[in-house]
Amino acid sequence: MMLDKPGLACAAALAISLVGTAVALGGCATPGVAIDGLAQVSAAQEAPAAPADKDFPFLASAQWKQGAFPSIEALRAMRTGMGKDQVRGLLSWPHFSEGLGRDREWNYIFHLRTGPGAEFVTCQYMVRFNGDVLTNGTYWRDPDCARRVSGIAGPDAAAFEEKK
Questions:
Q1: CATH number of this structure's domain 56-148
Q2: How confident is the model at residue 15 (pLDDT cuts 50, 70, 90)?
């Protein structure tokens, strides 16, 4: 059976579209460039202002509304001067609409266990990137979440808050 010309045109357009999509998505999975040591030092020395509560996105606007239960070790390994590939390796993809191109901010919904049972608290976490696409700040919306990850609780929590 021979396709008519409009059918061939549609098939060709579909094939071109699929190839273009594959190329575009392939670029998203490609590892980033090597990180320059001087750029890492510069990122670590930057001291951007911490985000205000209003700077965190609404939970309802998340692409991945379930959130995640990250390992505490991965959260503790976060540092300034890390590239996006390194952040993805520790925390996975951001949960909101970020992640492609030169986004300067990634936001996450993390659930942290509160004890041996099934109870947990939901926390929002923000990672900011500088012009070299290196982390230059990590922030918790709720300071109690930072204390949980750092392992500080009780009377030491006030001292932790003062050091921030």
A1: 3.30.1450.10
A2: very low
